[in-house]
What we know:
Blueprint: H1 3-38, H2 43-69, H3 73-97, H4 101-108
Helix pairs in contact: 1-2, 1-3, 2-3
Amino acid sequence: MPFWEIFCGRRQRFLEELAGTIADDCRSAAGDRVRNKAEAMSKAEARGYIRARAADLIETHTKARSVQHRLEPPIRRRVVMLAAERVVAGVLEDISRSEWQPAARRWAA
């Protein structure tokens, strides 16, 4: 395996771990912002709504971490995208596990 492939693999794992940490930091606050409206939406609508409402949280956390890790803007955008996907998936999971059974049943179908 060439050195470059090893380097790219390590970098990708680092970015995924960083995005996961950012997503974990934002998940609860994002869920609090969207829970009341998102549970009444279709899954596709809820995904877009969660992504839009959590964008500033994710961006703020990513900026703080990008300074710490000296991330270039293109890499920072990649981390934002990865973190956003994880936040959306996590909040949808939280909503489906919550007391709102009608939404959970509709999404499961």
